[in-house]
Amino acid sequence: MKKLKFLRSLRFRLFLLIAVIGIVPSVVLRVAILASYEGRAVSNRSIDVLSQAKLLGNQVVTYNYISDTSVEVINTQLEQLSNIYDGRILLVNPGFQIVKDTYGLDAGKTIISEEVVRSFRGEEITKYDSENRYIELAIPLKGAEEEEKSQGVMLVSVSTDGIMVNYDFLKDNALVIEIASAVLVLVAAFACANLLVLPFGKLTKSFEEVQASDDTGKLMVSDYTETEAISEAFNEMLGRLRVIDESRQEFVANVSHELKTPLTSMKVLADSLLGQEDVPAELYKEFMGDIAEEIERENKIINDLLSLVKLDKSSGSLNISVVNVNELLEVIMKRLRPIAEKQSIELVLESFRPVSAEVDEVKLSLALMNLVENAIKYNRKDGWVHVSLNADHKYFFVRVEDSGIGIPEESLEHIYERFFRVDKSHSREIKGTGLGLAITRNAILMHRGAIKAHSKEGEGTIFTVRIPLTYVG
After folding, report:
1. pLDDT tens, residue by residue, 198-249
2. CB-CB contact of 164 with 133 (8 Å)
3. What are phi and psi of 145, to 5 degrees?
4. Cβ–Cβ contacts within 10 Å for residue 197, how many?
5. What SS3 class is residue 55?
6. What's the DSSP call for residue 354?
7. Nearest-angstrom CA–CA distance, 4 and 26
8. What is the per-residue DSSP string for 276-295?
9. How many CA atoms lie within 13 A of 32 on its CB side?
10. What is the pTM of this model?
11. Spatial CA neighbour of 91 closest among 154, 158, 157
12. What is the Cα–Cα distance from 75 to 88, expressed in whole angstroms?
């Protein structure tokens, strides 16, 4: 199969196309010319013989040769016509008896054929037998008056060997010319095919060079509109891959940093305890409490990372069921209300209509809980969080609005990036991992939904979630 792989190449297909376009017309032209030559030559020979035979026929009628075949003038003319056209002439009387045969073979015999019968009725018949290579004419012998009865029929058979000799000579020469032109066409087709695919070879070489180097330059092969479009698409894809690679490197660095920081804190606390003798119980208890908090923070980071990995792996395997979204939000609000009350945050849920939708209850619950929990965490004391639910004929909408610290405009486009912190010092106090919004966005996108954020620093934030009521996989 690998040996036949070249049959699928563009170069071979272009070569084949050019070759066919160059060779087929010449073959068709050769056949058409030969057929035209044969038809034209036979037609001309038939006309010449017919005109000569009709002149001779008039002489036969004039001398009443059918009744008296001893007229030497007519015999001489019959022999001459037969010799000139390398043919045979038969004269048939009204009794269908052959009275004259220039070959001297069938004189006195009776001949009844369709051509003879039709000719006795006044028809002139011309027939060409291409297989046996002869022209046959049947000419009625009668006077100048149309109504005059035929005195007989003249049958003329003329060989076309001379025509076919010229035909074969022309055929051989045409074949030689055709073969020579076919060779030239094949060479030209090969050269053109190689020339036409040359820009694609440049593209392949450029791809390999980009792959083998860290050069960030752009690829551009503009020989054809198509290669230019491929170059632009490749550059766009390469740009995205570089962004993804940078994001991956940044993600790994952030994960390493976020996981290392609690470990470092725990080691410092443990070393402090180990470096002191007779540590008071109160200090020991305080340090152990701090270590427990760092362990809890490490555990939360790991759980959030596992949630992200789980979302990425199960992007095509949602556990879809019909869920009452009103009840789902009520459960979320019930779980988070103690946290809100602890910070004196007023938590309000407003449902404009009953909503049931085809969703993955666990993943959607995780996404909405992250939004409401963030609204509580990044709020002010005695602030408020307003959650509303609405729907139309196609989507349901969840709006989470708070009176919190807000997000700077320049940070809005980065809030869904993993480990991104708007205010890292403030976020450290709130003990966030920077993964919540990344988890939320992934879960919403898996439902073919969308999420938008509107915020003004110092005035609060609004998140709007739109998800289809019917899941389309």
Report:
1. 887 877 877 777 766 665 667 777 777 877 788 788 778 877 777 667 666 6
2. yes
3. -75, 130
4. 18
5. helix
6. -
7. 29
8. SSS--HHHHHHHHHHHHHHH
9. 6
10. 0.46
11. 154
12. 13
